[in-house]
Amino acid sequence: MDDETTVDAGIDTTLTTGSTELGLAVESAAVGPPGRSRLAVAILVVAGLLLLGAIPLVVAAMGQRSEASDAHDAAATAHAARPPLQQRQEQLERERADLQAHVDALPDLIGKVGTAGGELADAQASFTDMANHAADVHNAGDEAGATGIFRADGQGALDTLVQKNDAAKQSIQTVRDAVQTLKDGM
What we know:
- Helices cover 78% and strands 7% of the residues.
- The chain has two helices and three strands; from the N terminus they run βββαα.
- The longest helix has 102 residues, at 38-139.
- The chain is rod-shaped and about 155 Å long.
- Residues 4-26 and 28-32 have low confidence and may be disordered.
Protein backbone atom coordinates (compact mmCIF):
# COMPACT_ATOMS: atom_id res chain seq x y z
CA MET A 1 0.00 0.00 0.00
CA ASP A 2 0.92 3.55 -0.62
CA ASP A 3 1.64 5.77 2.20
CA GLU A 4 -0.04 8.78 0.61
CA THR A 5 -3.26 9.09 -1.29
CA THR A 6 -4.59 12.21 -3.03
CA VAL A 7 -8.25 12.64 -3.87
CA ASP A 8 -9.07 14.91 -6.75
CA ALA A 9 -12.05 16.47 -4.91
CA GLY A 10 -9.72 18.89 -3.27
CA ILE A 11 -9.20 16.86 -0.13
CA ASP A 12 -5.67 15.77 0.62
CA THR A 13 -5.50 12.85 2.98
CA THR A 14 -2.26 11.65 4.41
CA LEU A 15 -2.10 8.32 6.16
CA THR A 16 0.98 7.38 7.98
CA THR A 17 1.43 3.73 8.76
CA GLY A 18 2.58 2.71 12.14
CA SER A 19 1.43 6.04 13.57
CA THR A 20 -1.73 6.99 15.36
CA GLU A 21 -2.05 10.29 13.57
CA LEU A 22 -4.57 10.85 10.88
CA GLY A 23 -4.24 14.14 9.16
CA LEU A 24 -6.72 15.67 6.79
CA ALA A 25 -5.97 18.80 4.86
CA VAL A 26 -8.65 20.73 3.00
CA GLU A 27 -7.66 23.04 0.21
CA SER A 28 -9.05 26.48 0.91
CA ALA A 29 -11.24 28.14 -1.65
CA ALA A 30 -10.42 31.62 -2.78
CA VAL A 31 -13.57 33.06 -1.18
CA GLY A 32 -13.19 35.97 1.32
CA PRO A 33 -15.12 36.36 4.55
CA PRO A 34 -18.88 36.72 4.12
CA GLY A 35 -19.91 40.36 3.67
CA ARG A 36 -22.96 42.16 4.96
CA SER A 37 -25.56 43.25 2.55
CA ARG A 38 -27.23 46.65 2.72
CA LEU A 39 -30.51 45.07 3.76
CA ALA A 40 -28.89 43.37 6.73
CA VAL A 41 -27.29 46.67 7.82
CA ALA A 42 -30.62 48.46 7.44
CA ILE A 43 -32.37 45.82 9.52
CA LEU A 44 -29.74 46.14 12.25
CA VAL A 45 -30.04 49.95 12.28
CA VAL A 46 -33.85 49.79 12.46
CA ALA A 47 -33.68 47.20 15.24
CA GLY A 48 -31.28 49.45 17.17
CA LEU A 49 -33.56 52.46 16.72
CA LEU A 50 -36.57 50.44 17.87
CA LEU A 51 -34.66 49.38 20.96
CA LEU A 52 -33.70 52.99 21.68
CA GLY A 53 -37.32 54.05 21.14
CA ALA A 54 -38.55 51.35 23.52
CA ILE A 55 -36.44 52.62 26.42
CA PRO A 56 -38.65 55.69 27.17
CA LEU A 57 -41.73 53.48 26.92
CA VAL A 58 -40.28 51.05 29.44
CA VAL A 59 -39.34 53.93 31.77
CA ALA A 60 -42.84 55.43 31.42
CA ALA A 61 -44.43 52.03 32.10
CA MET A 62 -42.31 51.62 35.23
CA GLY A 63 -43.38 55.12 36.34
CA GLN A 64 -47.03 54.23 35.80
CA ARG A 65 -46.53 51.06 37.77
CA SER A 66 -44.94 53.10 40.56
CA GLU A 67 -47.88 55.54 40.55
CA ALA A 68 -50.31 52.63 40.61
CA SER A 69 -48.40 51.12 43.51
CA ASP A 70 -48.52 54.46 45.35
CA ALA A 71 -52.25 54.72 44.71
CA HIS A 72 -52.73 51.17 45.97
CA ASP A 73 -50.75 51.98 49.12
CA ALA A 74 -52.80 55.14 49.67
CA ALA A 75 -56.02 53.15 49.24
CA ALA A 76 -54.82 50.52 51.70
CA THR A 77 -53.92 53.23 54.23
CA ALA A 78 -57.31 54.89 53.78
CA HIS A 79 -59.05 51.55 54.19
CA ALA A 80 -57.12 50.85 57.39
CA ALA A 81 -57.98 54.30 58.76
CA ARG A 82 -61.68 53.93 57.99
CA PRO A 83 -62.90 52.14 61.18
CA PRO A 84 -61.42 54.72 63.58
CA LEU A 85 -62.75 57.52 61.40
CA GLN A 86 -66.18 55.90 61.33
CA GLN A 87 -66.15 55.57 65.12
CA ARG A 88 -65.13 59.22 65.42
CA GLN A 89 -67.93 60.21 63.06
CA GLU A 90 -70.47 58.29 65.14
CA GLN A 91 -69.15 59.92 68.32
CA LEU A 92 -69.43 63.37 66.74
CA GLU A 93 -72.97 62.61 65.59
CA ARG A 94 -73.93 61.63 69.15
CA GLU A 95 -72.34 64.81 70.51
CA ARG A 96 -74.12 66.88 67.87
CA ALA A 97 -77.45 65.27 68.75
CA ASP A 98 -76.79 65.98 72.44
CA LEU A 99 -75.97 69.63 71.69
CA GLN A 100 -79.03 69.89 69.48
CA ALA A 101 -81.16 68.63 72.37
CA HIS A 102 -79.67 71.32 74.62
CA VAL A 103 -80.25 73.99 71.96
CA ASP A 104 -83.83 72.83 71.49
CA ALA A 105 -84.43 72.89 75.27
CA LEU A 106 -83.02 76.40 75.70
CA PRO A 107 -86.12 78.32 74.51
CA ASP A 108 -88.27 76.39 77.00
CA LEU A 109 -85.81 77.15 79.78
CA ILE A 110 -85.79 80.84 78.86
CA GLY A 111 -89.57 80.75 78.76
CA LYS A 112 -89.53 79.34 82.31
CA VAL A 113 -87.31 82.24 83.40
CA GLY A 114 -89.85 84.61 81.89
CA THR A 115 -92.67 82.83 83.67
CA ALA A 116 -90.78 82.80 86.96
CA GLY A 117 -89.96 86.49 86.49
CA GLY A 118 -93.64 87.25 85.84
CA GLU A 119 -94.69 85.29 88.94
CA LEU A 120 -92.05 87.13 90.96
CA ALA A 121 -93.37 90.46 89.68
CA ASP A 122 -96.91 89.41 90.61
CA ALA A 123 -95.77 88.40 94.12
CA GLN A 124 -93.91 91.68 94.50
CA ALA A 125 -96.97 93.62 93.34
CA SER A 126 -99.14 91.65 95.77
CA PHE A 127 -96.75 92.38 98.64
CA THR A 128 -96.59 96.07 97.62
CA ASP A 129 -100.38 96.28 97.44
CA MET A 130 -100.67 94.70 100.89
CA ALA A 131 -98.04 97.10 102.31
CA ASN A 132 -99.77 100.12 100.72
CA HIS A 133 -103.12 98.97 102.13
CA ALA A 134 -101.57 98.59 105.61
CA ALA A 135 -100.00 102.06 105.24
CA ASP A 136 -103.37 103.54 104.27
CA VAL A 137 -104.97 101.93 107.32
CA HIS A 138 -102.16 103.23 109.54
CA ASN A 139 -102.41 106.73 108.05
CA ALA A 140 -106.13 106.66 108.74
CA GLY A 141 -105.22 106.34 112.43
CA ASP A 142 -105.81 102.63 112.87
CA GLU A 143 -102.46 101.36 114.00
CA ALA A 144 -103.88 98.08 115.31
CA GLY A 145 -105.58 97.45 111.92
CA ALA A 146 -102.33 98.10 110.08
CA THR A 147 -100.50 95.71 112.39
CA GLY A 148 -103.18 93.06 111.84
CA ILE A 149 -102.86 93.40 108.08
CA PHE A 150 -99.11 92.97 108.33
CA ARG A 151 -99.49 89.96 110.60
CA ALA A 152 -102.21 88.22 108.62
CA ASP A 153 -101.59 89.11 104.98
CA GLY A 154 -98.01 90.40 105.19
CA GLN A 155 -96.42 87.12 106.24
CA GLY A 156 -98.18 85.17 103.47
CA ALA A 157 -97.27 87.81 100.85
CA LEU A 158 -93.65 87.87 102.07
CA ASP A 159 -93.42 84.04 101.99
CA THR A 160 -94.82 84.00 98.44
CA LEU A 161 -92.39 86.72 97.39
CA VAL A 162 -89.39 84.77 98.78
CA GLN A 163 -90.64 81.55 97.15
CA LYS A 164 -91.10 83.23 93.74
CA ASN A 165 -87.70 84.93 94.07
CA ASP A 166 -86.02 81.55 94.74
CA ALA A 167 -87.86 80.00 91.76
CA ALA A 168 -86.71 82.84 89.50
CA LYS A 169 -83.11 82.42 90.70
CA GLN A 170 -83.32 78.67 90.05
CA SER A 171 -84.68 79.25 86.53
CA ILE A 172 -81.89 81.70 85.78
CA GLN A 173 -79.28 79.23 87.09
CA THR A 174 -80.76 76.46 84.93
CA VAL A 175 -80.40 78.67 81.84
CA ARG A 176 -76.82 79.56 82.82
CA ASP A 177 -75.98 75.87 83.20
CA ALA A 178 -77.53 75.08 79.81
CA VAL A 179 -75.60 77.88 78.13
CA GLN A 180 -72.35 76.71 79.77
CA THR A 181 -73.05 73.15 78.56
CA LEU A 182 -73.47 74.51 75.04
CA LYS A 183 -70.22 76.48 75.31
CA ASP A 184 -68.37 73.41 76.59
CA GLY A 185 -69.81 71.27 73.80
CA MET A 186 -68.61 73.63 71.09
